[in-house]
Amino acid sequence: MSGFDAAGVARRVLSIEAEALSAMAQGLNGAFSQAVETLHGIKGRVVCTGVGKSGHVARKIAATLASTGQPSIFVHATEASHGDLGMVSTDDAVLALSKSGETKELADVVAYAKRFGIPLLGMTAKADSALGRAADILLLLPDSPEAAAAVDAPTTSTTLQIALGDALAVALLERRGFTATDFKVFHPGGKLGSALRTVADLMHKDGELPLVAPDASMQEALLVMTEKRFGCVGVVEDSKLAGLITDGDLRRHMDGLLSHKAGEVMTAHPTTAQPHMLAGEALKIMNDRRITVLFVVDQGRPVGILHVHDVLRAGVL
Question: Structure pTM?
Answer without folding.
Answer: 0.62
